[in-house]
Write a structure and sequence with these properties.
mainly beta, elongated, 12% helix, 4-stranded antiparallel sheet
């Protein structure tokens, strides 16, 4: 009986030691758009990430802190060693002044399942008819 329990414990330990796990690593987690015009149209940035693990990585969700920020993310698994991107679009219309917005990215990564991305900048107001 002791041999059986020892064999089972050894097998379980071997399984855990060789478990494959996805991992996510971003090239950057903050992007500064600098100064942008309110009437200049939407601005976009792509946050590049790599699956540094040894199993497929799934992005479960990418949620913005407000409706003026629109993230899009890959719906298919990202293979180990491969890269992809989270595309974030900011809508400056009607929002003059400084901004800092966050995007919460959730994945099946083993360690950092949730990552916060940030965009920031300053929106210059559009010119009034008198200023033109």
């Amino acid at each position: 009986m002791k041999k059986l329990l020892f064999s089972l414990a050894l097998a379980a330990g071997s399984f855990v030691a060789f478990a494959q796990e996805p991992a996510i690593e971003f090239e950057e987690t903050t992007y500064n758009f600098g100064t942008i015009a309110e009437d200049g149209g939407n601005v976009t940035h792509e946050f590049v990430f790599t699956n540094t693990g040894d199993a497929p990585l799934m992005i479960v969700s990418a949620t913005a802190s407000c409706g003026c920020t629109r993230p899009s993310f890959p719906k298919k698994p990202v293979a180990a060693g491969k890269s992809d991107k989270i595309k974030v679009t900011y809508v400056p219309a009607g929002r003059p002044g400084e901004f800092i917005k966050s995007i919460t990215v959730k994945s099946n990564a083993a360690k950092n399942k949730t990552v916060k991305l940030k965009i920031k900048g300053v929106v210059t107001p559009k010119k009034t008819a008198a200023e033109k």
